[in-house]
Amino acid sequence: MSAFTDIATRTYNHGWRLDPIVRSLLDTDFYKLLMLQLIWERHPEIDVTFSLINRSRSVRLADVVAEEELRAQLDHARTLAFTNRELVWLAGNTFYGETQMFKPGFIAWLRDFRLPPYELSRREGQYELTFSGPWTHTTMWEIPALAIINELRTRAVLRGEGRFSLDVLYARAKAKLWEKVERLRALDGLLISDFGTRRRHSFLWQRWCVEALKEGLGSAMIGSSNVLIAMESDLEAIGTNAHELPMVAAALAPDDEALRQAPYRVLDEWRSAYGGNLLIVLPDAFGTHAFLKDAPDWVADWTGFRPDSAPPIPAGEEIIAWWASKGRDPREKLLVFSDGMDVASIEETHRRFAGRVRTSFGWGTNLTNDFKGCLPGGGSALDPISLVCKVTQADGRPAVKLSDNPEKATGDAGEIARYLRVFGRSGLVSTPVTV
Amino acid sequence: MSAFTDIATRTYNHGWRLDPIVRSLLDTDFYKLLMLQLIWERHPEIDVTFSLINRSRSVRLADVVAEEELRAQLDHARTLAFTNRELVWLAGNTFYGETQMFKPGFIAWLRDFRLPPYELSRREGQYELTFSGPWTHTTMWEIPALAIINELRTRAVLRGEGRFSLDVLYARAKAKLWEKVERLRALDGLLISDFGTRRRHSFLWQRWCVEALKEGLGSAMIGSSNVLIAMESDLEAIGTNAHELPMVAAALAPDDEALRQAPYRVLDEWRSAYGGNLLIVLPDAFGTHAFLKDAPDWVADWTGFRPDSAPPIPAGEEIIAWWASKGRDPREKLLVFSDGMDVASIEETHRRFAGRVRTSFGWGTNLTNDFKGCLPGGGSALDPISLVCKVTQADGRPAVKLSDNPEKATGDAGEIARYLRVFGRSGLVSTPVTV
Fold first, then answer.
1. Model confidence at B184: pLDDT above 60
2. What distance in Å separates the CA atoms of residue B15 and residue B20, rounded to the nearest whole number?
3. C-beta atoms of A376 and B182 within 8 A
4. How far is B13 from chain A (nearest CA, A)?
5. Distance from CA of B278 to the nearest CA of A (A)
6. DSSP 8-state class, residue B129
7. What is the ipTM of this complex?
8. Is a pLDDT exceeding 80 seen at residue B5?
9. Residue B13: band (very low, low, confident or very high) from pLDDT cuts 50, 70, 90
10. Contact A8 B4 (CB under 8 A)
11. pLDDT class for A435, splitting at 50, 70, 90?
12. Quick one: which H or E segment has residue B184?
């Protein structure tokens, strides 16, 4: 067969300066685009700094991933523009049942969008990677930056493995994922979507996982948070909003009272921009307990909640009890579970809430980056790390996230202490962060 | 990427009348060629019938494999001729350290070789497939006929499986094989070769397995019995002789004494044609015990034995004791184990004989067709079956194989009784035949 090698393709591939990890600006999470439209419309003047934070300190990323390769990938991402086809799809596709989710003016603005500059240095075996500038631009770095670093780490670990070692590695990972699919298939009424872009093993692997879920779970697989994969695989693009909205609002609050109100101000803005199934509350930026205690009544009218840092069952129970206290029927509400879920916790959570509340699951790292036990030589070099890219400043003021798990808190220590004073510590439970 | 599909290749593939299973006359076992040269030189006048025998009666092959497809594959195999490149390689390559293993006259004769006609009918859910005519031609059907039927069964079982089911099936099988490779890697001084052509899952899978062993076992992987794969993967072609030689000699023996001597006459012919490492005795056609009891002294000068139907450890011990009784040092001798071996029996046998005799392993069905537990839907539809293609007549006289395991005996019942009288029952042990 060697005579029939596709010479043009081979030659074209020879010409690549590098093998790019991010090849499209749509290779990001859908909620970034929803938030971006809001930021573009309401807050075009805010400057925000995003910073890379590796919570798995024992993995010395700067020793594993070559700086030259990292710069090459980041630089390549900065050359990307939305293509005409991508913009036509964003403008014309239906998202969450809505047409024209993205306004013509926003689509036009996206046409000239490019990722802004980055700052990269090394310190104690870690990379210090920051993105500073208009929030309308720095926000778009979060997902590609994380995907690039995670995939560069994968490549570094696998460099030098033999062709059959690699074949076996992926064979094991595929077999492993399929065991999960077979277990999930047994759950009546399950709804699940891929949330695994940011911490994926690689782009190609994420795509394989999504296609496998599509075939294996049928209609239980409702979509992907990855816009490019959703477009190419004809799946729903899934996602609503993230912690950066309340974090920026909180950072800019002039006093403690404004700080306490910041999460609700953000939701108020959101509901004026989006409706229906996009009205999902992310309650844990500064502690779910505090959020619920002071929440205005209209928050109970929203479609659902996405608990993202408390153990799923207590978190769900707390929100259900809150809905009931507000006179709402939880069976008409939705809980989206997305924090470090895997098959066992999906099974347990699904069974616990069946018939009591609608549920769906955003399956992330344990879907797209579970290679434990798959390396032919053994070892944990492919285990996912807890890498995030968070808002650290807004207009020069420090930004903080508390979350329901103090292990996940980010920000300046003095500011964290102030936030804890304002929001309280009630309901915060420390749990080891693995993914 | 769809714009870059290789249109020429796609178009070429559209034009296939079928997807041929056997695409080269070298896609056969090496010993068939060694035996063929002997038959061509010494016995061009003998007519021999080979017949398909499915010892796994519960698998109704004629219900699983469509007759039309079977005929199409057999017909396609009959269109094949040795290519010039293949003949140049056979003539010029070194086999077992010898140049010009195949004589120029034989190579010239091969140039016009084609597989002869077949007869196919159905009976009680099984195929009756026979090849009658000159031994020089019918002998060459054994391996392709078996490979074709086994792969057609694979295709029938897998038809209708989804693309990801198939991907997972092979992922599981790859992971399974690699576990075996990792266990075998721990055995010091192991020598192993692929003997899995006849009962392989498919050609492509056999090739994957061989390449995986090559990478995973390094120099412990000494070759393949498959001539085409040996040529393409630059491995040693492995094999010596098979039961058809003593079976034909026995069938043609004019009386009981000539029958008793038939196995030794065959070895005498073999040693006049081949030397060195090709002097491997296959002792079990009519029982190893009987063979050793009456064997002439010169048989102890041969390089080794290939016990093929007795449990490996007792068989090895019996042969070692026999060498010692003949005053030979077993540490200079070779035992080749090839009967239904898998990792556990390879480990056990290797350890048992380490330092006492040289050993090597011919790994067959459990290498190239172990899909137990791999079907995404479960079930045993891919489990290998005990299918053979044996000599049933020579010049019109019935042919018989006893073997050390009466479950493997083939032939007419009255003739089996006569052979048992001539050779005795001593040492025969009934063991279930699984592969």
1. yes
2. 12
3. yes
4. 12
5. 32
6. E
7. 0.70
8. no
9. low
10. yes
11. low
12. helix B163-185
Q: Based on the number of CB atoms within 10 Å of its own CB, is B418 exposed (0-12), middle (13-18) or buried (19 or more)?
A: middle
Question: For residues A273 and A198, what is the distance between their CA atoms, to the nearest angstrom?
Answer: 26
Over chain A, what is the mean pLDDT? 94
pLDDT in tens, A276-322: 899 999 999 999 999 999 999 999 999 999 999 999 999 999 999 99
For helices A84-92 and A104-111, the axis angle rounded to 10 degrees is 160
**Per-residue confidence (pLDDT) for residue B3, from 0 to 100:** 54
Closest in B4, B8, B173 to A9, CB measured: B4
Q: Report d(CA A8, CA B364) in Å as an integer.
A: 40
The predicted-structure confidence for A335-347, as pLDDT tens digits, reads as follows 999 999 999 999 9
Distance from CA of B95 to the nearest CA of A (A): 25
Contact A172/B165, CB-based, under 8 Å? Answer: no
The secondary element (H helix, E strand) that includes residue B180 is helix B163-185
Closest CB to B212: pick one of A6, A164, A216: A164
- Chain B interface residues (partner A, CB cutoff 8 A): 4, 6, 8-9, 162-165, 167-168, 170-175, 178, 182, 208, 211-212, 215-216, 376
CA nearest to B163 within chain A: A215
CA–CA gap between residue A308 and residue B38 (Å, rounded) = 76
For a pLDDT cut of 90, what percent of chain A falls above it?
85
Q: How many CB atoms lie within 10 A of CB B225?
A: 26
Give the confidence band of B2 by pLDDT, cuts at 50, 70, 90. Answer: very low
Determine whether the interchain pair B170/A171 forms a contact, defined as Cβ–Cβ distance below 8 Å. Answer: yes
Interface test with B, best of A168, A214, A374 (most B CBs within 10 A): A168
Residue A13 has pLDDT above 80, yes or no: no
Residue A5: predicted pLDDT: 61
Average pLDDT score over residue span B8-15: 64
SS (H, E, C) chain A: CHHHCCHHHHHHHHCCCCCCCCCCCCCCEHHHHHHHHHHHHHCCCCEEEEEEEECCCCCCHHHHCCHHHHHHHHHHHHCCCCCHHHHHHHHHCCECCECCCCCHHHHHHHHCCCCCCCEEEEECCEEEEEEEEEHHHHHHHHHHHHHHHHHHHHHHHHCCCCHHHHHHHHHHHHHHHHHHHHHHHCCCCCCEEECCCCCCCCHHHHHHHHHHHHHHHHHHEEEECEHHHHHHHCCEECCCCCCHHHHHHHHCCCCHHHHHHHHHHHHHHHHHHCCHHHCEECCCCCCHHHHHHHCCHHHHHCCEECCCCCCHHHHHHHHHHHHHHCCCCHHHCEEEECCCCCHHHHHHHHHHHCCCCEEEEEECHHHHCCCCCCCCCCCCCCCCCCEEEEEEEECCEECCECCCCHHHCECCHHHHHHHHHHHCCCCCCCCCCCC
> CA of B182: which chain A residue's CA is closest?
A376
- Contact between A376 and B6 using a beta-carbon 8 Å cutoff: no
B376: chain A residues, CB-CB within 8 Å: 178, 182
In this prediction, residue A165 carries a pLDDT of: 86
| Residue given tokens 């000599």 in the structure block | B391
Distance in angstroms between the alpha carbons of the first and the last residue of chain B: 44
What 3-state DSSP class applies to B127? strand
Kindly tell me if the per-residue pLDDT of B287 is higher than 90: yes
Token digits of residue A73: 């990938």
Q: What is the pTM of this model?
A: 0.82
Is the pLDDT at A11 greater than 80, yes or no? no
Interface residues of chain A, partner chain B, Cβ below 8 Å: 4, 6, 8-9, 162-165, 167-168, 170-175, 178, 182, 211-212, 215-216, 376
Over the stretch B229-271, which tens digit does the pLDDT of each residue have?
Answer: 999 998 999 999 999 999 999 999 999 999 999 999 999 999 9
Flag if A175 and B178 touch (Cβ within 8 Å): no
